[in-house]
Amino acid sequence: MEEPFAELFKESEIFMNREVLSPHYIPEHLLFRDKQISEIVKSLTPSLRGERGRNLFIYGKTGTGKTSCMKHVMDKIREIPNIRSKISYINCRIYNSRYRVLSKIVGDHLPMYAKRGYGIVDIYEKIINWIEEDNKILVVVLDEIDIVRDLDDLIYTLTRANSDIKSGSITLVGISNKISFKESLDPRSLSTLYENELVFPPYNSMELASIMKDRAETGFKKDVIDQSAINLAAGIAAKESGDARLALRILSKAGEISEESGLKAISVNQIVEASRSAEEEVAYEMVNTLPEHQKFIVYAIALLSVQGSKYKRLVEGSDTYIFSGEIYNRYVDILESMHKEAKSQRWYRKYITDLEMQGLIISYESGRGIRGHTKLIKLAYPPDKIKQTIEKSLFRESEAGGKDESQA
User: Fold this and answer.
1) Cβ–Cβ contacts within 10 Å for residue 304, how many?
2) Which CATH architecture has domain 290-407?
3) Segment holding 402, helix H or strand E
4) What is the distance between the alpha carbons of residues 171 and 104, in angstroms, rounded to a whole number?
5) Is 3.40.50.300 the CATH number for 34-200?
6) Which part of the chain is CATH 3.40.50.300?
7) Is the distance from CB of 27 to CB of 69 less than 8 angstroms?
8) Contact by Cβ (8 Å): 171, 53
9) Cα–Cα separations (whole angstroms), residue 127 to 10, 131, 174
10) Residue pair 277/390 in contact by the 8 Å Cβ criterion
């Protein structure tokens, strides 16, 4: 076998099971999330008993375990024999419209009707008839629900369906990084919701260290990594956002660096090196998946950070913080230059809250003395690289006709 291919099949001296270090891996027991799992089960209990239940909305920053906990509960539900409840898990980054969501439900439970070109009304009626056959309870889990373009129509359709169903019902579970997303819904849609809410807090450094130690014990070979390296990775991730995905990415990347360097162990040096690229990768993934107007706001912050502000900053870290009002003005200018309509300042403030919750920006209130009482904002990641990333994304979207603004 030629040398390059021989390397492919060479046994790793660092990794024992790489999959365990993936953020998509769901362990049998999710550390520090017993309370949240219990709350999910409690909310879904009426539906699991075959009764009409309340909808559930789950919020929290990226990497706080929302999706993992929901999938864990779903797996346990599927193990229950003779249960009338049926589940559809839908990733709204892929199924991002009412039609696609309803089609996915049909594909999950009525595959004989999938991909036949039915319209929304036909699909809706097939779902209703299927539920009524034997009083089913359909639990629809919408992960990253805020991404759906026609969200008002989707929520109205799914919640109002319970009025059309003679026996059985639909329970909706929405998962979002943005606690304010419901504020964008039409009052007609909001009036149909009767829901519980659950917020996932970020992990602290001690929790992240325990999670990573647990994963490292099966992900790495024995004695490859010590507790000091794990603690450092946990501290970095906790300081940035409490994001378990970031922590796991740092661990995995540190292992790759050690392996490529011919080392047989992971030290704090590899953790430091891995954290730089892992943090940036996470940030750029988040930026590329932002709704259009939030992306323009981040772009405005990046431009002002790189090109400089016209206002002199009178606070510590004055070379990085920017006045909120100046960011909004630049955002409006950018939209006007592209012949698009900017959102109001009320929407802008909501977007800023969402961006901060996702860990992309940092802000604080200035207090009196700096052009009055105002908010100062900076990017949590290198502005020049964020600027380049967004320019690639925006120009590509512009050439393709742009996104549907209803995503924002």
Assistant:
1) 23
2) Orthogonal Bundle (1.10)
3) none
4) 16
5) yes
6) 34-200
7) no
8) yes
9) 51, 6, 19
10) no
Q: Where in the chain is the domain with CATH 1.10.10.10?
A: 290-407
* CA pseudo-torsion sign 327, 332, 333, 335: positive
Please report, as a single letter, which amino acid is at residue 262: G
Phi, psi angles (nearest 5°) of residue 90 = -130, 120
One pLDDT digit (tens) per residue for the chain, 408 residues: 456 656 656 788 999 999 999 988 999 899 999 999 999 999 999 998 888 888 999 998 888 999 999 999 999 998 988 888 999 999 998 999 999 999 999 999 999 887 778 899 999 999 999 999 999 999 999 999 988 989 999 999 999 899 999 999 999 999 998 777 777 788 877 777 878 999 999 999 999 999 999 999 999 999 999 999 999 999 998 886 788 989 999 999 999 999 999 999 999 999 999 998 887 787 787 888 788 899 999 999 999 998 877 665 444 444 578 999 999 999 999 999 999 999 999 999 989 988 887 778 888 876 555 555 578 999 988 888 889 889 887 766 554 444 443 333
Instruction: List, by residue range, all CATH 1.10.8.60 domains of the chain.
Output: 204-286
CA distance 319 to 322: 8
Distance CA 218, CA 20 (A): 7
What is the identity of the amino acid at 84?
A: R
Phi/psi of residue 356, nearest 5 degrees: -70, -40
Q: Which is it for the CA torsion 172, 175, 180, 181, positive or negative?
A: negative
Measured between alpha carbons, how far apart are the two ends of the chain, in Å? 53
What gap in Å lies between CA 288 and CA 286, rounded to an integer? Answer: 6
Query: Angle formed by the axes of helices 268-288 and 227-240, to 10°?
Result: 30
Give the fold, CATH level 3, of 204-286: Helicase, Ruva Protein; domain 3 (1.10.8)
Tokens of 368: 């009196």
